[in-house]
Design brief:
Blueprint lengths: L1 H24 L3 H13 L3 H15 L5 H14 L3 H14 L6 H13 L10 H16 L6 H28 L3 H14 L6 H17 L3 H21 L6 H16 L4
Helix pairs in contact: 1-2, 2-3, 3-4, 4-5, 5-6, 6-7, 7-8, 8-9, 8-10, 9-10, 10-11, 10-12, 11-12
């Protein structure tokens, strides 16, 4: 019995492949559409894509076009061709705004772009683009069943931008460009007030102000020491038992000692 079942499976696969090869060369678009649909339903998305690519130009405006372009979009998505999936889903939404699949297509179109977003350390152009598209989806379909997924994707993408901004600011501190570090940390804290990196940002802002102050020329030292003192107080105001407290206290002792020179 097992041999018979195996044989039937082999025969079915052979016939399927044979039908597919014929469909690629077949000028009968209806027959091609039927095979493309079978490939799609069987999960053979790459084969379906080749047929959909042939069918797309001739099916626009036809009754079955909506189904074809939905399957076409999904096939790209299922094969992780996210740029093409995003484009096709957006075209679907534009072409079939009354479709029962429009919300799903709108979400997957935006979500496809989120899949293109790189790790935080790389250029974040695609991340910003994905955020714009997801926000547009949220604005257009506030009651959609996909809102929770869209919000979670926005959270992940925003986290990448947040991490990127923090690491950029810290990078200035690392290379001893303390003036740029102070500006970058100010911008970061203003842009991301609820960031989980706030304690670290406040400390490295203080460290930048401190390093800039103690290495200043005498004419600028007093002013910069006072800036460092404010940064120290802001760190402790945010978290009195900060993990940086020992180091920060030692630095502040130096600041206080140096400031006394200007009061004599």
């Amino acid at each position: 019995m097992k041999k018979i079942v195996s044989l039937l499976i082999v025969i079915a696969l052979f016939c399927s492949c044979s039908d597919y090869q014929k469909a690629l060369k077949n000028e009968d678009v209806a027959a091609k559409f039927e095979i493309a649909t079978k490939m799609y339903e069987a999960g053979k998305y790459n084969k379906a894509i080749r047929l959909f690519e042939q069918l797309a130009p001739t099916y626009r405006g036809k009754p079955q076009a909506e189904k074809l372009f939905y399957m076409f979009s999904q096939s790209y998505y299922k094969t992780k061709q996210y740029y093409l999936a995003g484009y096709q889903f957006e075209s679907f939404v534009s072409g079939y705004p009354r479709s029962e699949k429009v919300q799903e297509a709108a979400f997957l179109g935006a979500y496809s772009y989120s899949k293109l977003a790189p790790v935080y350390s790389l250029d974040q152009t695609d991340t910003v683009k994905a955020l714009d598209k997801l926000q547009a989806f949220i604005d257009n379909y506030p009651n959609s069943e996909y809102i929770a997924q869209a919000n979670e994707a926005v959270k992940v993408l925003s986290g990448k931008l947040e991490k990127k901004a923090y690491e950029n600011a810290k990078g200035y501190n690392t290379i001893s460009d303390y003036k740029s570090a102070l500006i970058a940390f100010d911008n970061f804290i203003a842009d991301y007030p609820g960031t989980p990196f706030k304690e670290d940002a406040l400390f490295y802002k203080y460290d930048s102000a401190y390093q800039l102050a103690i290495n200043s020329i005498p004419q600028k030292m007093e002013e910069r020491l006072n800036v460092a003192k404010v940064a120290y107080n802001n760190l402790l105001k945010f978290k009195s038992d900060t993990k940086y407290k020992k180091q920060a206290d030692e630095m502040n002792a130096r600041v206080e000692t140096d400031l006394q020179k200007f009061t004599k």
